[in-house]
Amino acid sequence: MLRANQTITDLNLRGNIFTDAAAEIICDAMRDNQTVTRLDMSHNEFGARAGTFIGQFLYSNFKLAYLDISWNKLRGDGAKAIGTGLRDNAHLTQLNISWNALD
Q1: Cα gap 59→1, rounded to integer Å
Q2: pLDDT of res. 32
Q3: What are the structural domains, with CATH classification, of the chain?
Q4: Can you tell me the distance from the alpha carbon of 95 to that of 41, in angstroms, rounded to the nearest whole number?
Q5: How many DSSP H helices and E strands does the chain contain?
Q6: What is the pLDDT averaged over residues 29-45?
Q7: What sign results for the dihedral spanned by CA atoms 49, 67, 83, 59?
Q8: Residue range 6-16: average pLDDT?
Q9: Which one of 1, 60, 73, 97 is at 20 to 30 Å from 83 when CA atoms are compared?
Q10: Rounded to an integer, what distance in angstroms lies between the CA atom of residue 25 and that of residue 33?
Q11: Are 67 and 92 in contact (CB under 8 A)?
């Protein structure tokens, strides 16, 4: 659905107990999405692997302006991957990554 979306601009996936496996599917679809500008994936169960997927999608998605990934378990290599994805992303203007125990 996210790949074919031409209408949804604000997607709230907050508090669904999504794991790293779900993050892979969501982020893969979001890489090609050109309409969603606000994405809330807070209060899930995303860990280090999810951070890797999020970093990859941030590197290639240039429509997203707001991302909330707070209250997950993002740390280590996943947190580094998010930082790497942000390095070349000039379109994201708001990021909430609080309460992840980043190290």
Answers
A1: 21
A2: 80
A3: 10-87 (3.80.10.10)
A4: 11
A5: 3, 4
A6: 93
A7: positive
A8: 95
A9: 1
A10: 13
A11: yes
